[in-house]
Amino acid sequence: METFTLAAVSLVIAVSLMARKEKEIVQRAFAALCLAIFVQKSGEFFDGIFESGVWRNVGYLGLLTALPLLLRFEHFFLRGRTFIGTRDVILTSVIGLFFVVAFFTPLYASPFYNAGINLYASLVLLYGYIALLVYIRKKSAGVERRRMAYVAIACAVTAFISISDALHYLILGFPPFSNLAAAALLYFVLVIIVHPHLPEFYEIMGRAIVIVITSVIATIIFYLVIGLFGTTPAPYVTHVLMGSFLIVLLFDPIKLILKKIFIYLFPDAKDFFTSLYAFDHELEKEKSMLLEEMATALAHEIRNPLGSIKGAGQYLKSETSSPENQKLLDVIIEETDRLNRVVSQFMNYAKPYGVKPAWQDINTIIEKAASLVRANERSGKITVETDLHPSLPRAHVDGEQVMQVILNIAFNGIEAMPDGGILTLRTSKIESDEGDAVGISIRDTGKGISKEDMPKIFKPFFTTKKRGVGLGLAICLKIIRGQGGQIRAKSLPGQGTIFHIRIPVPQE
């Protein structure tokens, strides 16, 4: 079961990578490696069932193919900055070809043949691992070094767990875990190469940990059910755990395929795939519709009296000569204008936005926004930095609305840095199973937002400012969702806040 599951996981990863619209060379190299592992493990699995020399040879062929592909993948994975090169790939291919030719010679029947392949494979794996360690040692401190360090740790843990296979044969009933560890390692590396622009490393770890925890919970539930209703001996825990891992890994691809099929057959069947936990979102949509209906009438009823009050105040100010009365009338006029701005912001939040999408270069929008922020008098003590991805795909959005969101968040960040600081505008290219997207991050080094306030920042009329209305971020959220995107925020009090915006990139 473990061998079959690892073969299946390898195949799923390879197919999912090859199905991507835009595949970088490191992703193609990893897909080829996973296909070779699939061939190797399939040969081992069927050899255990049929005990046929043909399947054993298939397993050997997969292993001998995987070794040069491993070095090729590592060369691209480490961006060529290691001692692994084309000569190593060619050398391992030649050695593998020697073992393949030996299939048809008396050497194949020698007891040293199997030992020779295992020794050769171990040396190649050790060679590749040393290359990874050398790369980490030479790499300067930073996120990239930490990413590779965790890969090295994962490889070491996988190698250590592989000892359980030997213990399985020495200690009766001790289950093998090496294939489970290898499957987890393949998935972890997949996350690393598919999400190279995630802002924090713990998010990469989180994607893998969620899969593992979900698989463990499914295994526990299985054994609880077996314990309550089962009448036959329960299978090995590794059988169930790896089966759960495979099911969890396949869940999203299967769901996407079924969704496309159902939508094609039943165009009104989209709600079949709506989670029970999405009802709150539907309730928010109903509230928004109600606000849209109320906004026009409410604004009309408020603005008319405000206009009369302001007009009366201006008239009385022109008729009085008392400085004290003029100051009071100035307060009336000023507060009337402020209330009118509140009504305008409420209208902007409540009314439906007329989106005029066009193919936009997000980097150009960011550069323009950065220029406007630098030119603003409020940014005197602020250093505005930009970090733009050089090959960012164009997005189909309303450029003016995206600009409004960026400026709103940027000026909020400036207000959070009254004594000066750094405002960083960054773009990134996001590639995932959900589709390609453009990432925008806006980071400040200000006072940050408290944990108690973080869940409320996108709610209408919530504000921590003395003269704030509390609709700025709510409007930003509505604009980004209207463009089909997502927005979220993270903050550490005393260290600053970062807003992440994700805008999907449809195919042109």
Written overview of the protein:
The chain is an alpha+beta fold and 508 residues long. The protein has 3 domains: 2-264, Rhopdopsin 7-helix transmembrane proteins (Up-down Bundle); 276-350, Orthogonal Bundle (Helix Hairpins), CATH 1.10.287; 358-504, Histidine kinase-like ATPase, C-terminal domain (Heat Shock Protein 90). It has helices at 2-18, 25-50, 53-77, 86-101, 111-138, 143-161, 163-170, 178-194, 201-229, 237-265, 279-319, 323-350, 362-375, 399-415, 472-482; strands spanning 358-360, 382-387, 395-397, 421-430, 437-444, 486-492, 496-504. The strands form 2 sheets. Strands 2-4-5-7-6 form a 5-stranded mixed β-sheet, covered by helices on one side. Mean pLDDT is 79; it is low at 276-280.
Characteristic key phrases:
508 residues; alpha+beta; Rhopdopsin 7-helix transmembrane proteins; Helix Hairpins; Heat Shock Protein 90; 5-stranded mixed β-sheet; two-stranded antiparallel ribbon; 7 strands
Write the topology of this structure.
Elements: H1 2-18, H2 25-50, H3 53-77, H4 86-101, H5 111-138, H6 143-161, H7 163-170, H8 178-194, H9 201-229, H10 237-265, H11 279-319, H12 323-350, E1 358-360, H13 362-375, E2 382-387, E3 395-397, H14 399-415, E4 421-430, E5 437-444, H15 472-482, E6 486-492, E7 496-504
Parallel strand pairs: 2-4
Antiparallel strand pairs: 1-3, 4-5, 5-7, 6-7
Helix pairs in contact: 1-2, 1-8, 1-10, 2-3, 2-8, 3-4, 3-5, 5-6, 6-8, 8-9, 9-10, 11-12, 13-14, 14-15
